[in-house]
């Protein structure tokens, strides 16, 4: 699979000049310095070329950009961290609102809340909140953008205790399709707030996220341990037992892959198949050490760095496995449990990996999110207890077919263990409407209603799109919005 490499649509100079006059931040045409840097995403498989880029510095720039796209019929895309695997931040030929310069974080330790701008990466938030011994429920890679993570649901080391990232959203400021700036919360524009929490970027441009924070760290017991693949059955059996009885403060992620050349793994095992467990206990150091002891004593590890460390360092631990500029293709499913047959199948497919960077990953998410009603927010999937992610990653375009084939083959086999749902943020560019519906489940019908109210013309369509309902145009003819 290769993404579009179309030349950028030529946008009339009058349109570009009119928008430039309204922006505080820089505007970039395709021949401008910084254009390629701004349009480059984490996943190197995505190569789209906007006709115009507005690098927003504030809400006024966002309002101007949305108005220009609406008035001139330009395709519109929004870039936060640019870390989405499907490359939803970019459109070909249209207008890109690049939010990556808006990276402010303001922490209110008394209220245990944080105001976060849409260009922020997870690491930006962690650094500020940990100054107060607080944390938000964010993901596993510090370079991920907060905006996309939250709008698609979001989960991380703290999800077993506090739920989806979107469950911890207190409010959002949103620029709507008609150019208004509104606040969405449980008390204001509650329907929009419901849709933002899991419905993706379908309803507007969020210019501020307000998160609930929780006491975490700064010191925790966390890290990783790895074993030769021959010991995987024993390690994975203990993994199942550990998660089944684990308190909500504990998350353990299981990974099957070839050992990277990480300094904490014995050099003689680099490049060889391993099973690794990534351990994070956000409670007391004593409890964290006690619960880690059986895992550390299992078999003969070839590396073990489960120890007292800062929460921020744990949030950085997996960054090296997901560098910008590689080619990425994933398939994922929600799981109701981790059965021995699933683990056997995972081991079989891990033995056939075609890239040293690819992996089979199992994330536990059971706990807080299961206790809320299914209709609590758009993210739904409250029956999910684990996420299975088949993560292919490689360096050269010539290897696309082999890596994509491995991912699809493993997925077709292992999806029989699924709840039937999948994670919106892990969908690929070639995953169609059926997979979006799998991700949204029972929320889809209500999301169509919200989309029809807030974005009837489908201005915000460069995403895993929820099309607005058929409506009456000029009081005469029904049509479906594009």
Concise account of the structure shown:
With 482 residues, the chain is α+β, with helices and mostly antiparallel strands. It has helices spanning 13-20, 35-39, 59-72, 122-129, 146-151, 159-162, 190-196, 232-245, 285-296, 311-316, 340-350, 368-371, 400-414, 433-440, 444-454; strands at residues 27-28, 52-55, 76-79, 95-98, 105-108, 113-116, 134-135, 169-175, 181-185, 205-212, 214-215, 219-228, 250-258, 273-281, 303-304, 307-310, 327-335, 359-364, 386-394, 471-473, 477-479.
How does this model look, in words?
The protein has 482 residues and is α+β, with helices and mostly antiparallel strands. The chain is built from 15 helices and 21 strands. It has helices at residues 13-20, 35-39, 59-72, 122-129, 146-151, 159-162, 190-196, 232-245, 285-296, 311-316, 340-350, 368-371, 400-414, 433-440, 444-454; strands spanning 27-28, 52-55, 76-79, 95-98, 105-108, 113-116, 134-135, 169-175, 181-185, 205-212, 214-215, 219-228, 250-258, 273-281, 303-304, 307-310, 327-335, 359-364, 386-394, 471-473, 477-479. Strands 12, 13, 14, 15, 16, 17, 18 and 19 form an 8-stranded antiparallel β-sheet that branches. Strands 5-6-10-8-9 form a 5-stranded antiparallel β-sheet. Strands 1-2-4-3 form a 4-stranded mixed β-sheet. Strand 8 (169-175) and strand 9 (181-185) form a beta hairpin. The model is unreliable at 1-8 and 472-482 (pLDDT under 50).
């Amino acid at each position: 699979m290769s993404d579009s490499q179309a030349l950028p649509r030529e946008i009339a100079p009058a349109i570009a000049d009119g928008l430039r006059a309204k922006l505080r931040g820089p505007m970039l045409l395709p021949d401008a310095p910084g254009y390629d840097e701004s349009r480059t995403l984490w996943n190197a498989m995505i190569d789209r070329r906007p006709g115009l880029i507005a690098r927003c510095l504030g809400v006024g720039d966002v309002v101007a950009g949305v108005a220009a796209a609406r008035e001139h019929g330009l395709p519109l895309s929004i870039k936060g961290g640019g870390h989405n695997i499907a490359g939803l931040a970019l459109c070909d030929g249209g207008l890109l609102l690049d939010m990556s310069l808006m990276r402010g974080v303001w922490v209110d330790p008394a209220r245990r809340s944080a105001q976060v701008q849409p260009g922020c990466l997870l690491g930006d938030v962690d650094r500020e909140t940990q100054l107060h011994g607080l944390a938000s429920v964010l993901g596993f890679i510090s370079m991920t953008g907060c905006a996309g993570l939250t709008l698609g649901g979001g989960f991380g080391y703290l999800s077993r205790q506090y739920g989806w990232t979107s469950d911890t959203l207190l409010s959002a400021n949103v620029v709507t399709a008609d150019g208004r700036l509104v606040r969405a919360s449980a008390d204001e524009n509650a329907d929009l707030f419901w849709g933002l929490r899991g419905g993706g970027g379908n309803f507007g441009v969020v210019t501020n996220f307000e998160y609930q924070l929780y006491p975490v760290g700064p010191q925790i017991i966390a890290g990783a341990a790895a074993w030769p693949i021959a010991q995987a059955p024993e390690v994975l059996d203990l993994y199942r037992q550990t998660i089944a009885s684990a308190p909500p403060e504990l998350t353990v992620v299981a990974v099957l892959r070839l050992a990277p050349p990480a300094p904490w793994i014995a050099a003689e095992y680099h490049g060889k198949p391993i099973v690794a467990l990534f351990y994070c206990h956000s409670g007391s150091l004593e409890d964290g050490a006690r619960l880690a002891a059986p895992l550390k004593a299992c078999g003969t590890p070839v590396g073990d760095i489960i120890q007292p460390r800062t929460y921020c360092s744990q949030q950085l631990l997996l960054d090296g496995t997901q560098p910008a500029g590689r080619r990425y293709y994933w398939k994922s499913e929600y799981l109701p449990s981790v059965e021995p047959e699933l683990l056997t199948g995972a081991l079989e497919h891990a033995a056939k990996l075609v890239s040293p960077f690819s992996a089979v990953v199992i994330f536990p998410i059971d706990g807080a999110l299961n206790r809320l009603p299914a209709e609590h927010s758009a993210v739904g999937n409250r029956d999910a207890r684990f996420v299975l992610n088949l993560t292919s990653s490689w360096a050269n375009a010539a290897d696309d077919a082999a890596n994509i084939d491995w991912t699809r083959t493993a997925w077709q086999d292992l999806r029989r263990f699924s709840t039937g749902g999948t994670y919106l943020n892990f969908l690929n560019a070639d995953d169609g409407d059926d997979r979006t519906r799998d991700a949204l489940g029972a929320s889809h019908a209500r999301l169509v209603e919200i989309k029809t109210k807030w974005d009837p013309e489908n201005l915000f369509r460069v995403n895993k799109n929820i099309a607005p309902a058929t409506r009456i145009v000029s009081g005469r003819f029904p049509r479906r919005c594009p």
